[in-house]
Design a protein that fits this description.
Number of domains: 4
EC number: 2.7.13.3
Distance between the termini: 96 Å
Subcellular location: Cell membrane; Membrane
Number of helices: 13
Strand order of the largest sheet: 2-1-5-4-3
Helix content: 40-55%
CATH class of the largest domain: Alpha Beta
Catalytic activity: ATP + protein L-histidine = ADP + protein N-phospho-L-histidine
Number of strands: 12
CATH topology of the largest domain: Heat Shock Protein 90
Structural class: alpha+beta
Pfam families: HAMP, HATPase_c, HisKA, PAS
Radius of gyration: 47 Å
Shape: elongated
CATH superfamily of the largest domain: Histidine kinase-like ATPase, C-terminal domain
GO molecular function, one term: ATP binding
CATH architecture of the largest domain: 2-Layer Sandwich
Length: 480
Amino acid sequence: MNIKTKLTLNIGMLVAMIVLLVSLSVVNLQILTATEPTSPAAGPGLQRALIWVSIIGGICIVCGLWMLKQLPASINKPVKEITDGIKEIANHNYEQRLNLESKEFEEVSKNFNRMAKRLADYHSSTLAEIKAAKNYMETIINSVKEPIIGLDNAMTILFINDEALSILNLQREEVLWKSAQEIALRNDLLRRLLRGVQDSFDEKNTAKNEPLKIYADNKESYFQMKCMKTGREGTSQKEGYVILLKNITEFKELDSAKTTFISTISHELKTPISAILMSLQLLEDSRVGSLNDEQQELAQSIQDNSDRLLSITSELLNMTQVESGKLQLKPRVTKPIELIEYAIKANRVQAEKFNIQVEVQYPEEKMGKLFVDSEKIAWVLTNLVSNAIRYSAENGRIIIGARKTKDNWIEMFVRDFGKGIDPRYHQSIFEHYFRVPGTKVQGSGLGLSISKDFVEAHGGTLTVESEIGKGSCFTLRLKA
């Protein structure tokens, strides 16, 4: 029976009962009106009329209450079934089906069941594809010989390959779908990796990404960590992280061998170079005999090239100290002006040769003192002044000075007015052996990189400001 028929029957019954009740009341009222009030039949007639009206009225009330309960329930039931079915589908229960007997909802029921079947088929096929893709990805990840770890935004481990399990000394069932932060409480290496993830995306962190030293393959190995974010910005897709560890042990060993070789060669070269310079001094001594102009020119050439070679070997030795971690600082209290005067004195001959005027800018007010290895910081300033002279035009000028900042740091700077450095190379010039393309001035490409290492070893910074055609200014910043 459909809803329309139910409504018609129920309303018809109510109307019929009301008509019956009204008719009965009218009939009894007419009978009572026709009867004399003093007649013996008036009392029983009135009583009889009240009984019939009460019985019929009671029946009408009972039927009305029954219809009031049954009719809304019969209409609400299919609607509730549809609502519950939609909720089940929303909760991914694609096996839900509707079996509504009402003709009005029969078509709705068929369409709902057809939709649920299609969703179930699609979900089954999609789930199978996802599982196949997952197995495929796991096979690829496990075939990679470098450790890989995947994390979601809540730092839950989503995947991890065999290499990563090996170096972490963990079992797959111990970590998969577990909180990495909880596991890190009892695993030092994983704790270092998670700290590396935070540092990778911390804009305030300026520390170098140093290799991780890990005991793997029964020996000490070195790994370079790289962290990448997953997920797209501007979408509802949650972010995650992928940690990649590249084994650089072989390169580290080669680099160590290179450093040892350079250090050894540099030490060995200093002895014959010193012997050459000593012999040259004896040769130029007038007591041995005077040199003609051509011989004097050759002697000067030997002197220049020997000095240059000695400077290069000294730079190589400094570089090997930094790379091998054997750089030893001997700090003492030093005035900035003493370092500046040393750098000027060390470059006086070179400045006079090119007729370069060296200007000093030093504040009149009292400057703080530095607690640094004065020999190494003086070397840095000497190298900066030497570069400024070499890259300045003849008869030009350079400025060396110092100033105190508001945050109690001391800045020493060297400014030249040469051709300047292209902004593209402002970072590269501090790398080993790098020289700006097109530079004709001779150099090893080590001076600035070693200078930066020396300054950073003191907790300071070495930066450059330069524009093409306007010269360069190198600023050394140290804590007072």
